[in-house]
């Protein structure tokens, strides 16, 4: 190989090395540009989480402050429409700033409507009592005899020590299956089971929704109310808010399957809320 060829070879080899080095430098710079954004995100995330935690804590404190600010006059107003037994439980918990544990047991009607009466009621209670009330809702599609069979099963977590149980009377499920006298016995069994965990707890009973057209069912519900109140139980009669007896008007509040629609759910929830919040 002559000298000129040797020099040409070294020049070509040098060019290749230069191109390779330039490529590596370019790739390194590209990586340094893209990676920091990922790293920055990683570093910022914990701070954002801390901020979120602080915000949640702040929100909780706001709710607690609202609850803690309930005066004796406000408590009296909130419990104005309650029975003496219910008022005693609510007042004792509120004055001691002890959270009220409320269990709501309803048929599938509790979820009918957008939203259902259960959700609407829970919202009203939270607005009225803040952090001083915690609502648990359970949907049960059977009759009262079947509900009693479930009392020590998986349906209800009695360890939550419920202070108040709001129970739908399951009147539609009972209709033609469970006689009124037996349903009252079932209510008493539910009440006894409730008080095994919280001695001064209170059971509040309200009927299932009325129907647009029915002959025997209204009489059955009226008998249920009479028997129940004669036993000393609290009965929330939301039927007085429905246009019972007027088929056309009742259809405004019920679906074709006789379940509450949006208006029916709102009416039902309003009646229960009026009793439980004094508004």
List its traits.
Rossmann fold; alpha/beta; 5-stranded parallel sheet; 279 residues; single chain; 9% strand; 2 domains
Write the layout of secondary structure elements.
Layout: H1 3-68, H2 72-78, H3 84-95, E1 100-106, H4 117-129, E2 133-139, H5 144-149, E3 164-168, H6 171-174, H7 180-197, E4 202-206, H8 216-230, E5 234-235, H9 247-250, H10 262-277
Parallel strand pairs: 1-2, 1-3, 3-4, 4-5
Helix pairs in contact: 4-10, 7-8
Q: Can you walk me through this structure?
A:
It is a single chain. The protein is an alpha/beta fold and 279 residues long. The protein folds into two domains: 1-69; 70-277, 3-Layer(aba) Sandwich (Rossmann fold). Helix content is 58%, strand content 9%. It has helices spanning 3-68, 72-78, 84-95, 117-129, 144-149, 171-174, 180-197, 216-230, 247-250, 262-277, and strands at 100-106, 133-139, 164-168, 202-206, 234-235. A five-stranded parallel sheet has the order 2-1-3-4-5, with helices on both faces. The longest helix has 66 residues, at 3-68. The protein is globular and about 50 Å long. It starts with a helix and ends with a helix. Residues 25-65 have low confidence and may be disordered.
In short:
The protein has 279 residues and is of the alpha/beta class.
Largest sheet: 5 strands, parallel
Q: Write down the Rg.
A: 33 Å
Number of strands: 5
Q: What is the CATH superfamily of the largest domain? A: SGNH hydrolase
CATH topology name of the largest domain, in short, is Rossmann fold
CATH architecture of the largest domain: 3-Layer(aba) Sandwich
Determine the structural class based on helices, strands and strand pairing: alpha/beta
Q: Which percent band covers the strand fraction?
A: 5-15%
Cα shape: globular
Number of helices: 10
Look at the structure and give the mean pLDDT.
Answer: 84
Name of the CATH class of the largest domain: Alpha Beta
Q: Count the domains.
A: 2
Q: Could you spell the SSE succession in H and E letters?
A: HHHEHEHEHHEHEHH
Strands across the major sheet, in which order? 2-1-3-4-5
